[in-house]
Amino acid sequence: MTNIVWLDQVGAGDGALVGGKGANLGELLRAGFPVPNGFVVTTNAYGRTDAAGNVAPELAAEIVDAYHKLVGDSGALVAVRSSATAEDLADASFAGQQESYLGIETTSALLRAVVDCWASLESERAKAYRAKQGVDEQGVRLAAVVQIMVHSVSSGVMFTANPVNGHLEQSVITASWGLGEAVVGGLVDPDQIIVDPSAGRVVARQAGDKWVRVVAEDDGTHTISVDEAKRRATVLDDAQALELAGIGERIEEHFGAPQDIEWAADADGFHIVQARPITALAERVDDVPDEWPVAPKAMYFRASIVEQMPDPLTPLFADLVGPAVANGLDGFFLEMTNWVDPGSLTAEDVKTQFVTINGFAYYCYGNETFAGLLKLTPSIIKPVFGNGGQTIVKRWRDDQLPMYHKVVDAWRDTELASTPSLRLLDGVRELLNAGCYYYTSVQTIIPLAATAEMAWQAVYATLVGVPRVPEEAYLIGYDTAPVRAEKALWDLAQWCLGHAGLVAALRDVDVDARGECPDGVDPAIWDEWLSRFGAYLDDFGYQTYNLDFINPVPADDPTPILQALRFTLGGQGKDPYERQAALAKRRDEETAALWRRLDPVRLWLAQRTLEHAQELSPIREDALAAMGLAWPTMRRFLGELGRRMAQAGVIAAAEDVFWLREDEVTSLASRFDAVQPVADDLRDVVEDRKALWRGQTKLHPPQGLPRNKAMAAMDPLMPAKDGQKGPVLKGNAGSGGVVTGPARVVASVADFGDFQPGEILVAPITTPAYTPLFAMAGGVVTDVGGILSHGSIVAREYGIPAVLGTGAATARIRTGDVITVDGAHGQVLLGDGEPKAAVPKWVGWAAGAAAVGGVIAWRVRRARRKS
User: Fold this and answer.
1) Contact, 11 vs 27, CB < 8 A?
2) 109 within domain boundaries
3) What digits encode the pLDDT tens for the residues 588-634?
4) Second label for 67, Cα 20 to 30 Å away, from 20, 209, 448, 728?
5) Taking a C-beta distance cutoff of 8 angstroms, is the pair 208, 176 a contact?
6) CATH no. for residue 34?
């Protein structure tokens, strides 16, 4: 058995022996490309350790001997990179799933790095990725590539085709100072250069803020600051960029496919340290996708319901949700204005458009329509905020919520197999319309609650004196939909703990929690478990992670719920009843202490303002949590339509229905119902649309368009920051406190199962469906979200710091990065970044102060009526 081979002895066909990375590097080295020399500890040696977990003595001797032959008397540092057999494949890159260790200069550190590489194959992150890609665990092994380290002056990543717009003739280069870990680890905002190597020209370039660089020394790497003069200085000039792109072009020609390449440059020139196929290449788009084309004399906003659509929309959802949102909002405007001035507004006066640009959802208003709506704002404000908001609360509780339930109940028990296809599609339309119109209630409840809380903040800051506790301490400890869901899950866990065999089965991630009774569990107990868990999902499984209905809800995929349940079954969970009682007790004690400090005038004003905020704060969570009521039924209907299409050979799998357009689905459904032959083959079309969507996910949509002074003036009102760079991300202060810890980027429900206790949750948004993770999280950071978004409210209940609306968290932070979340100041420190001055609190107080007068007036009128 061969334990050690040299890179120049292997090639593309040797993946089983040296892993994907090793095979590709050996292939390039033998072909004459500038790859640093090295050797591979092969898959034959994988996992060979002694009883103490060290490399087995005989193997260690072979590794050390090869190391001395490699470095000789040069004293060169080496890098140790994991190279799995399931890695750098044509359809799955496995990027970042295993570990690399840089700057190794001693044999003991080398041997430890080899063991750590082996261990990384069994990390939860790597196993979850392999499961997602359908890789057979039995055949996966890992090699370790040992190479001479490049003393990188600069480094980065190069794509030999543009992954965003699909232009095969363009190479995209990112570049920064020092080792490439700063780029691939997301520590810096690198330079970006788009090159057309065949034409010999640089198409575009953008300088980034390269505020740190990674250097290798002392058996490891270290992050150090970059001089101010070099932070925005160009890393590669045009000639260097063209030279590098030329190397990439030749590598692409050698492998016969576009490549994702990691490069490094020292005094001797460029070196290639990794190459693999590009697995996500967008369909070619001839319009520059970095531009955001808009109609003239119109304004576009990513706010309100769009906050729950953080990704590019899938085609079917985009087609159906556009008119649903527009109709719902237009109906709301008519309803509100007719409350106070019947007939003053007609359907012709409000023409909301809900459109997509580069795949992302936007509200769109013509300038004249927008101006008209601004004039109508006072008449809309009156029914929303008048009477202390009681009219709006009554509309939600007594009208909109029951109406939504009625529509959902009418479709919920539809028998799928016997229902005509067009009828199923009509059901999806009706349910989505009902959900979007219901959201108009959420759109009124949220600002109502926000205004009440800001009014309380203004009073607390200006009239109370030196605060004993943060103002939010008076607003916690109440029952809300997410809290009720958590308590119900706790109750379920307590029942499970009375059955040892059941606990053992449920803690096994390989057990299907909704499947057949596993070994060691009493069948009667398992049936009871299925009944209880099913009831839980019926009550709480409709909450959405993302409104695009391609995303499963907990009723479809209960992974996050099971993750939280296992957390509690393992003895790590905290009793939510005790936590809530403690919060309520603290709230009441602090409130009583505050009242004792105030004179009668300030007491009267503070009591009434706080009472109003306490009344409305829980309602906003209940209103938002109900948004997803229609989603499980819509997904059932679409799943059945997809099954029929897949059975007819139109698409490859039922879930591909989401990638069709509305007219395509309507045509197919009509022919199915008429029992007409269907010969359509849309499988390639679906794959092209998926590729385009993957490219669009790399874009960062502006919060408002067009980018001009008028739109910039609205930036403070938007739910996310635009264009953030540098070592500190600013956002909205959601929940106080400071925490430093490893980040876990949760981009979708597929990432929930990887979440580990104590990690900092980094997500595009959080909705009530994310609540199970809050019990385990050390802190929360989001791309989108205001000071009164779901993440803010729930983080307070759990006592963890939260910074929301950074606009760039999921782009700038990678899983495993150590970050610091300063919830009180709304800042996230990346690496060793320094905090910036906080936004003065008077900004928020001033926004709330305007509402104080209205609250007082309402309370006075109510008091007079009672007297």
Assistant:
1) yes
2) yes
3) 999 999 999 899 999 999 999 999 999 988 898 899 889 999 999 99
4) 20
5) yes
6) 3.30.1490.20
3-state secondary structure of 828: strand
Strand partners, 31: none
Here the tokens at position 553 are: 């809800």
142 and 207 in a single domain? The answer is: no
Domain stops at, among 101, 133, 148: 148
Domain-ending residue, one of 130, 148, 166:
148
Are 229 and 130 found together in one domain?
A: no
Instruction: Kindly report, residue by residue over 494-533, the tens digit of the pLDDT.
Output: 999 999 999 999 999 889 999 999 999 999 999 999 999 9
Q: What would the two tokens of residue 176 be?
A: 């920064």
> Any idea what DSSP says for residue 12?
G
With 0.90 as the threshold, say if the pTM is over it: no
For the residues 404-426, what does the mean pLDDT come to?
Answer: 97
- 102 contacts 79 by C-beta, under 8 angstroms: yes
Domain enclosing residue 143, as ranges: 4-148
Higher pLDDT, 476 or 380: 476
Phi and psi angles of residue 865, each rounded to the nearest 5 degrees, phi first: -65, -40
CA distances from 222 to 413, 532, 648, 704, 832 (A): 59, 51, 57, 39, 11
Dihedral sign (CA 647, 648, 653, 655): negative
What is the reported pLDDT for 761?
Answer: 94
Question: Does the pLDDT at position 362 exceed 90?
Answer: yes
Quick one: CA dihedral 393, 399, 404, 405, positive or negative?
A: positive
| Number of domains making up the chain | 3
DSSP 516: S
| Torsion over CA: 648, 650, 651, 657 (sign) | negative
Least confident range from 267-271, 368-372, 407-411: namely: 368-372
**Co-location of 507 and 616 in the same domain:** yes
CA 495 to chain centre: 33
Cβ contacts of residue 709 below 8 Å, gap of 6+? none
CA distances from 232 to 32, 543, 728 (A): 34, 44, 16
Judgement on whether residues 503 and 589 belong to the same structural domain of the protein: yes
Q: Does a structural domain hold residue 80?
A: yes
